Amino acid sequence: MSRIIIIMGVSGSGKTSLGLALSQALQIPFLDADDFHPQENIDKMSQGLSLNDSDRAPWLLALNTLLQTHHKQEGAILACSALKESYRVTLSRKLPVEWILLKGDYDLIYNRMRARDHFMPAELLRSQFDTLEVPSYGLQLSATDSLETWKTTVVQQKNKKHFGIIGLGVMGKSLAFNTLSKGIPLAVYNRAIGNESTIVSDFLKETSTPLCDGYTSIKEFVNALHTPRKILLMVPAGQPVDAMINELTPLLTTNDIIIDAGNSHYVDTERRYKALKEQQLHFVGVGVSGGQEGALKGPSMMPGGDKTVIDSIWELKAIAAKVQGISCANYMGPDGAGHYVKMIHNGIEYAQMQLLAEVYDILKASDYSTAEVAALLEAWQKTGVKSYLLGIMPDILRKEENGTPLIDLIVDAASGKGTGVWSSKNALDYGMPATMIAAAVQARFSSSQRDLRISLAQQYGRPTTAQKVDVQMLFEAYSTASIVNHLQGLALIQAVSNNLNWHISLADVAQNWRAGCILKSELVARFALELAKNHEIEELPLIKAAFENDWDSLKQICKFGIDTNVPLPCFNAALTHLFAFTQAQSSANIIQAQRDYFGAHGYKRKDIDNDQLQHTNWTQQ
Ligand code: 6PG
Q: Which of 286, 345, 346 best tests ligand 1's pocket when mutated (most atoms within 8 Å of CB)?
């Protein structure tokens, strides 16, 4: 893989000397950015005028194009002051840049320039120091060190790996294969205890590529990585993540990056982010969706943390799923925003799964055989409700063992790992109606009380009254309920983002969910396209259409459940949401009166135009 190294720093920091020395040592061309100024800039500078940002813009773009060409060949080393972050963003467009900052204090560099008879007005150097936005990524070399020390530090990186993965479970291993398939030099680590003793050696046998090194010693793994290190953790959420961080941090150096790609709770991510910042290390929480296949072929990735740090982890975009060449790895927001978005992704996933379970139950109550349900859902998959989850249903329903559908042998008690519950709790914490996610979570809880259900069914069970559902109605109800579910989830993200000042772009969220993830669907693609044009979610044409709809199908399906004794918590939650959000006069005046009656909590009056709470003595006539 060719290297693109950009050496940055103020004038006189030693960029050219280091660039030339590296060029010789690494055998890749050296470019001096000053040699590529357009004539207008040269003319301006020769009149003693300094360049402004708009003068620099075409020059930086041209340098980026030049570097892109070199990247396809043997690579390049560029010396460029690149004092501002915005310049570096342009320079590194579509490129895996290794940044090196030559860092020294003003007096040191000024005196060095004087000693070299290199005249530079003191104010000019001072203004460069004032302009310098020190990057929070990349390798920082001290100007007090010798050229030889700099050279050795960089050259030593030559054989080091660009990216590290810790944890070769099913997901970690798939991500590692994916990373290698993109030609990214990789180091992997897994502990070698108990039944994990041969995981690393087995993986290396399977991959057998010089691009990959494997380790069972964490110290050796860390030493095998390029600095600043980019280490992706794929270990179970919770305590194992903290344990791994504690093991790693004493071995790391300033600006190294730990990327947690598990299903961590976003509050834990915020805590870890802050703790590592204090140690001058970076922590990035990335929601990863798509299961084993996604991890292998390109998952949806939802990164959160410092934007500049995330931008420097170009490997994420390289391994993520793509839609028309665009990676589903948009930046989500600061702190725990990435894991937050993944959590709500899973909440929506819970409700979509539950809706499909309810569709199955309705069709079973209508006397459909399992094979007929499979055929019907397969036909739906050719329409606008097409989705990953709907698409796996025929496979699930057609799987047989000795002539029996496997689905009939599976215990009807659903478990979960937490993200659905966390999403529901989060909606409660922020006062947002994510009723479909809550209904789906609660449905899993009811299913899990299996012994009680069976016993109550024996005593009080109502037989399912046979009726034939209108499948067109069912299709339309499923379509409307799916829209309401996504609306609730996205509105929750919006509300929490506003509350925490995260500035999450729903368009970027939907774009990330277009491919690679469990939620990918035609519906998400429509959300992504519409959100890219309108920012207010209620203003989206597809949401307006859902509200304008007469909801007749959804009503008929909910009635079908009542008439046939089939519980339909998610369909009902969807319909109730539509009712509730189109009811100008709600019944909450009764609630307020009751609160005031027994607790003197106060209420606001429609006929008094201020926020003053009123209290009434309700028993005094
Ligand atoms: C994904 C999935 C994945 C996992 C869920 C399952 O996006 O790839 O959501 O993260 O399958 O954790 O969650 P439950 O075990 O809670 O159903």
A: 346
